[in-house]
Amino acid sequence: MVSSSERRTMTAPCLEAECKSDQQIAADFLSYLQSQFEDPVAYEVEPTRLTGGFDARLYRYQLVDQEPRVLRIERPERKEEGLLYQQFVYQTLNQQGLKTPVIHHVCGDKSILGGVFAVMDLLPGRTVFELAPELHAKVLGESMATMHEMDVRPIVEACRQSDVPDELYLSPISHQKALDSLEEAHPWASELVGCALICLLMGGISL
Questions:
Q1: Could you tell me where the DSSP H helices lie in the chain?
Q2: What are phi and psi of 4, to 5 degrees?
Q3: Whether the Cβ atoms of residue 44 and residue 62 lie closer than 8 Å to each other
Q4: Mean per-residue pLDDT for 189-205?
Q5: Average pLDDT for residues 99-116, to the nearest whole number?
Q6: Cα separation of 2 and 19, whole Å?
Q7: Burial of 4 (0-12, 13-18, 19+ CB in 10 A)
Q8: Do 12 and 113 touch, CB atoms closer than 8 A?
Q9: Smallest Cα–Cα separation from 179: which of 201, 169, 199, 194?
């Protein structure tokens, strides 16, 4: 598959993703895949819902003789550009050693599944939302510590070489808003959020 699909005329009606059943999603996605490959394709494991995904529907699936992957369907108002940007960011972070899923394919035709969608790697393990609160806090803290120990300059340089605006990834305001939302949703993580804000304000790097 290529990183971004050509526009193809599909027979699926233009419906919002949340209006389609999981069975309809599976059928329409398979029809789309069959239109992309010369050889026949079939499910070994049909798409099943994954937990997580604040603003997207996530499905695990597996084609015959292929590795399991994830189908991510964005909300109807989302645009293809957002997934292409996410594809670049995940690839850049993966190259720097972070465990991020590679996005193999992006399709911007909302008429197929009700929103733009992507095909991604399936990472092993459980999501943090499936963990007990004390383990959730531990994993979150360890992940934040790992990120703060990273040399971010290669990531910033890669973004700038690709003309990604600085404000998309260097804005303290956007980071603070995200952390505020995290604290509101998970009050027990307030101390971790406070530490993260201090790091953002005092632990900056000259870029």
A1: 22-36, 80-95, 110-113, 133-149, 153-161, 172-185, 190-202
A2: -145, 135
A3: yes
A4: 58
A5: 93
A6: 28
A7: middle
A8: yes
A9: 194
- The strand pairing partners of 121, in sequence order, are 69
Q: pLDDT tens digit string along 1-23?
A: 444 444 443 433 333 445 789 99
**Cα torsion 20, 24, 29, 34: sign:** negative
pTM over 0.90: no
Residue pair 73/25 in contact by the 8 Å Cβ criterion? yes
153, amino acid identity: R
Largest CA distance in the chain: 56
What is the per-residue pLDDT across 30-77, written as a single tens digit (0 to 9) for each?
999 999 988 899 999 999 998 766 678 999 999 999 999 999 999 999
Alpha carbon of residue 167 to chain centroid: 20
Whether the CB-CB separation of 72 and 65 falls below 8 Å is answered with: no
**Cα torsion 166, 108, 78, 178: sign:** negative
User: Could you report the per-residue pLDDT of 131-150, keeping only the tens digit for each?
Assistant: 788 787 888 888 888 878 88
Say how far apart CA 165 and CA 85 lie, in whole Å: 11
* Neighbouring C-beta atoms of residue 114, cutoff 10 Å: 24
Computed over every residue of the chain, the mean pLDDT equals 79
